[in-house]
Structure formats: structure tokens, C-alpha cells
Amino acid sequence: MATKEYSFYPGCSSQKGASGSNYQVSVDTMCDVLDIKLNDIPDWNCCSASIGYAGGGELPRMALSARNLALSEQANPEQDVVATCAACWLATRETRERLLHSDSLMKETNEALAAAGLKVEAKQDVRHMVEVLIEDFGYDGLAQHVKKPLEGIKIAGYVGCQTNRPFGIVGESFENPKYLDKLVETMGAEPIENYDKKVSCCGGALAFSEPEKSQALIKDIIESAYDGGAEMIVTPCPVCQMNVEVYQDQINAKYKTKFDMPVVYYSQLMSVAYGKGVQESGLNGQVIRAKKLEDIASK
What is the mean pLDDT of residues 4-30? Predict the structure, then answer.
């Protein structure tokens, strides 16, 4: 029996061939080391993320996440709901908070769910995977599994928007959250302490609708990491990871920069530090290769 079990909401980006599929690979590897069992919510659906705010209305957006909560309550009733995607976590947690604080919204949402034979009570806590790592295992507990310390790598912890506001991680500053810095240090690498863009927005879906605005934001995020001496950026968000990594060529062409900054997930750092290889850590899914991590993973 696993040490810890959670009701897992994978989210769309984690699926095979999707933008965050390598994230899921590293999460599975990390969880195997930590003896965590993730029990998928059966027949889960999209949380609605950005598109839910684009004219669909409040009730349909709430109902999508509420359906996942209702399914979780049926399948894994004694477990906290855990998401690895920042957008999924934010949408699901917001839904739970809103339902618990509005009798009318709870009533309307359950009327919508009744058409599918479901009912939501919103009793389960909704947590991001980094909350699980910090609160249920602690930095000392996570450090116990390190086999290959990530020595000699300077890493900027890019938190982004969605795991920071409006909820954030308990005990962390909204302006200067330290949990990624602490995770980096726990894995044996060196965090960039003066990284002043760690909670700046990457533009999110503006990368598609207004790419010039998004790329200007991304440029500042990467430039600040370089200014702090970073060789790599780490993030807990699939949208942040994708935007900050994949548009570097376009930004270089537009601004005459020479960015070549790897952008990885915290779970990839942990998987490598825990002694796993390149493929097990999802490093083979990077657009910009994290060569220093690959070197450690290959030892």
C-alpha cells in the first residue's frame, strides 16, 4: 500500500502527445520514488481553463470543474484532489471555494449535474502537487531520496501567476514565494535569489491571440533569469513552461537576442536528483535541451 494516496486530476496538457506529457512522465517517476499513488478521477473532463472565461458564462465553467469534483467524490471519497497543472488546480479550487460560499451557485450547479446523474458536495480539499510535496513530505523528507545532487547548476524559480494568486501556497509571500528556490536547494542546485520576474505573467493564452504582447513578457522573464546568472528556469505550470521555452527562437529573431534557456518542471529536477535517467525524467521531451540535467541523469 502506498504511503500517500490522492484523487488525481491529470488535466488535458498531461495527455500523451500534449504539451505537458513529459511533465506527467516526471511526476510519475517522482511519485514512484516517494511512494505516492495517484488515483485518476474516472472520466474526468477539461477544467475549461482560459476558454471558460471567453463568453461561455459562469455556470458552464463551474459545472465543468464541479463534474470532476463529483466524480472524485464517488471514486476516491477519502482523498484530497490533486492537480499538477496550475490552471487545472486554480479552476478546480476556485469552483470548490465558490460552491461552498454560494448556496445559489451550488443549487444551480447541482441542477446542471443532475442531467448526468451526478451531485457535488465539494467536500474534498483541492491541492497542487507542490503543496503535497511541501506540506505532506517537507523539504527534509524530500531531501532523503536525493542520490545525484544537482551540483553546479544555477536555477531561476519561475512561479508564474496561477499558483500564486489568488490562492497561493500556504505560508508563502505573494510577492516573493520561496518554495521553488527551496526545492532547487533541496535537490542540490543553486537557486537564483534575486530573480525579480518569478511571479510575472508569461501572457498565457495571449501567446496565440496577441503574440507580440506575450513575447514581450516572456523576453523579460528570460532576460531577468540571465541577469541573475541562471542557467535554467524551473516552473510548476505547463503553460508557463511551454510559453517560456518554445517562443525563444521567435523572440531571438524579433529582438536580436540569443536566448537558449532550458525551462523545466520541478518534478524533472527531482527525478534526476532521485537518480533517474533522461527518459524517466521526461528530459527527452524538451524543446531546448537541459544539457546539464541530462549529464547528471546519464551518470
Answer: 93
